[in-house]
Amino acid sequence: MTAPQRLTDRKREAIIQAAIAEFRANGFDVTSMDKIAATAGVSKRTVYNHFPSKEELFAEILNQLWARISAEQTTPYSADLPLREQLRERVMAKVQLMADENFLTLARVVIATTIHSPERAQNMVARLGEREEGLTSWIRAAQADGRLKPVDPEFASQQIQGLIKAFGFWPQMSMGRAALNPDMQHTVVESALDMFLACYQL
Length: 202
Prior knowledge:
This protein is an all-alpha fold and 202 residues long. It folds into two domains: 1-52, Arc Repressor Mutant, subunit A, CATH 1.10.10.60; 59-200, Tetracycline Repressor, domain 2, CATH 1.10.357.10. Helix content is 76%, strand content 0%. It has helices at residues 3-26, 33-40, 44-50, 54-71, 83-98, 101-114, 118-131, 133-144, 153-168, 170-174, 182-200. Helix 2 (33-40) packs across helix 3, helix 4 (54-71) packs across helix 6 (101-114) and helix 6 packs antiparallel against helix 7 (118-131). The longest helix is centred in the N-terminal third of the chain and has 24 residues, at 3-26. It is elongated, with a radius of gyration of 20 Å. The termini are far apart.
């Protein structure tokens, strides 16, 4: 990569980080491209060179959030491994992601920005659902293998995710609580596995 390209990448990242900070502090509607440019230490023209509109810039923040969620996707279902072992890997990856301060910051920006815009919120929920399809697919495969009860896989997926988000996501979003420490992560994961497998394992 050439030096000018690296500089361009650095400016783009500075703009994104400035936008996250401004959206988080002031909300989407109040934040201006002028303010983002000033916070990033670049010209307004540079901001528009990277992002044609504030909506495009916000979409990039969403993309970074989705990318973090996708990164925790793990190996596909295996008929040869214990269900608890496979499910623990998936659920622990999600809990550890929710303990990442960068992820929490992005999530706060998204939630704060969409809470007053039903259209944006619906788009966010739809895209989040697409990114969380991995666990649903795993449940569906375990059902096809005769190891889990034939319930709605999406419903079951939302159940176990609700169990971990009740401790590792929503308190951090709504009440400003600290991310779960490793011991609490382990407790939350193992408890969620106990409840899920007691209900659905054949």
